[in-house]
């Protein structure tokens, strides 16, 4: 099974994956308050921009590559997509 097929099975669209990843990035940013210099460095260095640029496409390509190379299996991907599906449902009530 491919990542695209699994996304279809979980009724996920690219925007849902972007939302799911945005939750993780927001949590990362919120973890910086204790280290303001590190947050400034993270933004200034372009690391934030790099992480956000096409993040959902890179993420899905990486998952597919890991699956193709047997680094991860379908059940791991399903667990991730269940979380993404739940985030998409919660997003509708956001």
Automatic annotation (TrEMBL):
Protein name: Putative membrane protein
Native organism: Spirochaeta isovalerica
């Amino acid at each position: 099974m491919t990542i695209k097929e699994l996304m279809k099975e979980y009724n996920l669209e690219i925007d849902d994956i972007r939302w799911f990843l945005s939750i993780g990035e927001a949590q990362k940013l919120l973890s910086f308050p204790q280290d303001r210099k590190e947050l400034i460095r993270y933004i200034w260095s372009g690391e934030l921009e790099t992480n956000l640029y096409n993040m959902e496409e890179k993420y899905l390509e990486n998952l597919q590559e890991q699956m193709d190379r047997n680094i991860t299996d379908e059940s791991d991907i399903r667990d991730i997509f269940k979380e993404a599906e739940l985030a998409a449902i919660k997003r509708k009530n956001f």
